[in-house]
Design goal:
The protein has helices at about 10-25, 40-50, 70, 100-105, 125-130, 170-175, 195-205, 230-240, 260-275, 300-310, 325, 350, 355-360, 375-380, 395-415; strands at about 1-5, 30-35, 55-60, 90-95, 115-120, 135-145, 185, 190, 210, 220-225, 245-250, 280, 285, 295, 320, 330-340, 365-375, 420. With about 425 residues, the protein is α/β, with parallel strands linked by helices. The chain has two domains: about 1-185, Rossmann fold, CATH 3.40.50.300; about 195-420, P-loop containing nucleotide triphosphate hydrolases (Rossmann fold), CATH 3.40.50.300. A seven-stranded parallel sheet has the order 3-4-2-5-6-1-7, with helices on both faces. Strands 15-14-16-17-11-18 form a six-stranded parallel sheet. Strands 10-12-13 form a three-stranded antiparallel sheet. Helix 7 packs antiparallel against helix 15, helix 9 crosses helix 10 (about 300-310) and helix 14 (about 375-380) packs across helix 15 (about 395-415). The longest helix has 18 residues, at about 395-415. It is globular, with a radius of gyration of 23 Å.
Length: about 425
C-alpha cells in the first residue's frame, strides 16, 4: 500500500490515469479504480478512453444506474456490469464508485485485482477503503489532504478516540495505523498562481510544501475599463495588479451563525456585476463572462440571497453560486466567496472547519475576492478554545481551523490586501 498527497490542481487524476495505463499496457496487470462518487468514475472513464491507447475498460455499477450517453456510445468502454462474476477479468481496468466495490466485496475472489487505485481518497472514509484491501494485491491512495472531510451521516464522536477511526479520511487513518506506508507528495499546483500558494500553503497545508507550476504571466488579469475609486473597484484593481486573493470588508455588525446577511450578499453580487462591467480579461484566454465567475457561501440560505441579488443585477444562471461541498473539484477564473466568520456572534466548529475555507480559496485560476464583515481578526483573538470538548487523542480540527484562519488573516492584513468599506 502507498499514498500520494496532492495540493489542489496538481494533477491527481492525471497521475491516476498514468498509473492505470502503465499498469495495464506495459505490465499487463488487472487494475481497479474506485472513486467517491459515480460522476467521478465517469470522468476517469472518459479520460482513459480519450488519452491512451485502447485497453480493456470495464464499468462496475448498479443496474439501476445508467452510463452517460457519450460513454454508452464509446466503443472502448464495455457495457456496465453489476456483479463481479460478469467481469471479463484479466489484463484491463475496472472503474466504479467505492460504494459499489464495497457492496460487491463478498462476490470478489481474492485477489481479484493486482492493483487498486483510489482517486480522491481523502473524500472517502476509512470504512469504505478497509474492506477493499482484500480484493487487490496492492493499493494506491491518491488525494488532497486539504479538502473537506468525508460526509458521515452518523455521529462520529464515539469513534474519535477509538482504535479504528472509521469516519476519518482513508489515507489519514491508514497512515495513522501504519506509519510505515510509503508516502509521496506532488510538489506543484497548476490551478492558481504563486501569490495564492503563498497564502493557502502555510495556512491549510503546513505539512505539504508546494509551489505553483504556472508562470505569473499566464495568470495576468486585466480590466479594460478604469475604476472610479470605490472599495469594490479598489479590490478589483488589486487583482489586476497581481494580488490574487483580496478581501473587502463591510462595517462590523453581528449577524449570527447561519443568518442571512443581505448586505454582504448584495456586496458579493455587486462585485460580480462591477467586474463584468469593467471588461475583465484573462491574458491569453480572452474576455471573461458570467460563466467564468463563481460565488461560494458555506450556507445554503445566504447563497440563495446572493442569487436573488445577482438576478436583480441582470446576471442569471450561468454564474454559479454554491456551497464549498459542491465547489470541491470545480474551478473558475474568478471567485467571490463569503468569509465563514463574517458577522458571527460566536465562533463555532462549523465556521472554523479548515477544509471548507480551503476549498473556497482554491477554486480560482486568476483571482479571488473574500467578502465579509470587519472584526474577523478580533473574533479570532477573542476565541477561547475548549480542548476538553473532544475525546482524548482525537484530532482537533477546530484548533487546526483556527490556526489556518489566523495565519491567513495575518498575511492578508500585513500585505495590505484587506479593503474596508467606510
Amino acid at each position: 500500500m502507498s499514498s500520494v498527497d496532492s495540493p489542489p490542481g496538481a494533477g491527481k487524476t492525471r497521475l491516476v490515469e498514468g498509473v492505470v495505463a502503465t499498469a495495464v499496457q506495459r505490465l499487463g496487470l488487472s487494475v481497479a479504480v474506485a472513486t467517491p462518487r459515480a460522476e467521478q468514475s465517469f470522468d476517469v472513464l472518459r479520460r482513459l478512453s480519450a488519452n491512451f491507447d485502447p485497453m480493456q475498460i470495464e464499468v462496475l455499477q448498479s443496474n439501476r444506474r445508467f452510463l452517460p450517453s457519450d460513454l454508452r456510445a464509446d466503443p472502448q468502454v464495455a457495457a456496465p456490469v453489476s456483479s463481479p462474476g460478469d467481469l471479463l477479468g484479466g489484463r484491463g481496468v475496472v472503474v466504479g464508485a467505492a460504494s459499489k466495490f464495497v457492496a460487491s466485496v463478498p462476490r470478489f475472489r481474492y485477489p481479484q485485482f493486482q492493483l487498486l487505485v483510489c482517486d480522491e481518497a481523502y473524500q472517502l472514509p476509512a470504512k469504505d477503503i478497509d474492506p477493499l484491501v482484500t480484493i487487490a494485491e496492492q493499493v494506491l491512495l491518491v488525494g488532497d489532504p486539504g479538502q473537506l472531510p468525508p460526509l458521515v451521516k452518523a455521529d462520529p464522536a464515539r469513534f474519535e478516540a477509538a482504535r479504528y477511526r472509521v469516519h476519518r479520511p482513508a489515507p489519514e487513518e491508514l497512515l495513522r495505523r501504519y506509519p510505515g506506508i510509503p508516502r509521496e507528495q506532488l510538489p506543484a499546483t497548476f490551478c492558481f498562481p504563486q501569490a495564492t500558494v503563498d497564502l493557502v500553503q502555510p495556512s491549510f497545508y503546513p505539512h505539504l510544501p508546494f509551489g505553483s507550476g504556472v508562470p505569473d504571466e499566464e495568470r495576468r488579469f486585466h480590466l479594460r475599463a478604469a475604476g472610479i475609486g470605490t472599495p469594490i473597484d479598489r479590490a478589483l484593481d488589486l487583482l489586476a495588479e497581481g494580488a490574487s486573493v483580496v478581501g473587502i470588508l463591510a462595517p462590523e455588525k453581528p449577524v449570527g451563525q447561519g443568518g442571512v446577511d443581505d448586505e454582504i450578499a448584495a456586496i458579493m453580487a455587486r462585485m460580480c456585476r462591477r467586474a463584468l462591467d469593467r471588461g475583465p480579461e484573462w491574458e491569453g484566454e480572452g474576455r471573461l463572462g458570467p460563466a467564468d465567475i463563481g460565488c461560494a457561501d458555506a450556507h445554503v440560505a445566504s447563497g440563495a440571497a446572493v442569487r436573488r441579488h445577482l438576478l436583480a443585477d441582470g446576471i442569471r444562471e450561468e454564474l454559479v453560486v454554491e456551497t464549498p461541498e459542491i465547489w470541491q473539484g470545480l474551478q473558475r477564473p474568478l471567485m467571490v466567496v463569503k468569509h465563514t466568520l463574517s458577522g458571527l456572534l460566536r465562533v463555532d466548529p462549523f465556521s472554523l472547519q479548515p477544509g471548507r475555507t480551503c476549498v473556497m480559496l482554491s477554486r480560482h485560476q486568476v483571482g479571488c475576492v473574500i467578502v465579509g464583515r470587519d472584526g474577523v481578526g478580533e473574533a479570532l483573538d477573542r476565541y477561547q478554545h475548549d480542548s476538553g470538548a473532544r475525546a482524548s487523542a482525537a484530532e482537533d480540527a477546530t484548533w487546526s481551523g483556527w490556526r489556518a484562519r489566523a495565519t491567513l488573516w495575518e498575511q492578508l492584513e500585513r500585505s495590505g490586501r484587506l479593503i474596508r468599506i467606510a
